Amino acid sequence: MAAAAAFALTTTLLIVGSYAVTTLKVDDDKPLQFTYSGDMGPDRWAALNPNFSLCAKGKSQSPIDIVTAQAVVNPKLKPLVREYNSVDVTLVDYKFTVGIEYPNHTGGIIFDGKKYSFKQMHWHSPSEHRINGRRFAAELHMVHVADDGQIAVVATLYKYGRPDPLLASIYSKLNEMAVRVGSEEKSPAIPFGPFHPPEIRRTPKKYYRYVGSFSAPPCTENIPYIVLAEELSISEEQVQALKGPLDMRCKNNARPSQPTNGRPVEAYEDHH
Question: For the chain, what is the mean pLDDT?
């Protein structure tokens, strides 16, 4: 029997990143559609809902283990141009991850000659993508949508070390959100701003590109991923703050690595 829907739509539904956000209301009274452990975990996703069939049958799924020796440098790839404005945003608890939703005038990226508007970011811990078999402490997904509906995800990997400045700026709000989970205050959203840290505006000197999928149900494919080669650092306290508001079955909210099935992984390098 499929689990009841986790979300109640307000108007139109926009699938962004690994789940539905934007014109969306999170309903605290309904259970999750999927989890990361137990009988609703990743190996069971396809059986939970007919719409989740690609989670088992798809041939271009995410995340993957990026083997750097097999990544081919593509001289035709261009620098990833990132142009974001400082805007008022909303921190949202989706139960299986926490995210930040952005308004329409945020800006975005230019990738492969195409403009994508920035819509949302969310975190996974531990990381979903691996580099040469290595799993990292956490991973940030920045979700962008083009005018034609094409979605592109910029992924940043974090290793344990110094606190991340971006998360430091929302650390208190993450803790506030975790407190709300166990209180009568049921609102899953915390508006704040202006917000746009400079750490996520820099043009990366190296990235990996491949075509994958949503890394959570419905596992929709044909999603280009730009995985930044430069690792950032994150503290153990910040990782725990990201996990704090989540459902107990989603504290470790990373899908296992998926087969590449011959998909090419391209690399961009700036030698200037």
Answer: 87
* Burial bucket for residue 211 (CB in 10 Å: 0-12, 13-18, 19+): middle
pLDDT in tens, 15-64: 433 444 333 344 555 678 999 999 999 999 999 999 999 999 999 999 99
Name the amino acid, one letter, at 231. E
Number of domains in the chain: 1
What are the tokens at 50? Answer: 């007919």
All residues at 6 or more sequence positions from 214 whose CB lies less than 8 Å from its CB, including other chains: 15, 17, 18, 19, 62, 220, 223
Strands 189-195 and 87-93: antiparallel
Angle at 53 between CA 48 and CA 59, to 5 degrees: 140
In a domain, 234, yes or no: yes
Confidence of residue 128 (pLDDT cuts 50, 70, 90): very high
Q: Would you list the DSSP string of 143-200?
A: EEE-TTS-EEEEEEEEEESSPPHHHHHHHHHHHHHHHHHTSS----EEEEEEE--GGG
CATH code of the domain covering residue 258? 3.10.200.10
Q: Which residue has the tokens 């069939």?
A: 53
What is the model's pTM? 0.89
Region 127-151: what's the mean pLDDT? 97
**Separation CA 200–CA 156 (nearest Å):** 9
| Opening angle at CA 252, ends 250 and 253, nearest 5 | 65
- Dihedral in degrees, nearest 10, Cα atoms 142, 90, 244, 156: 10
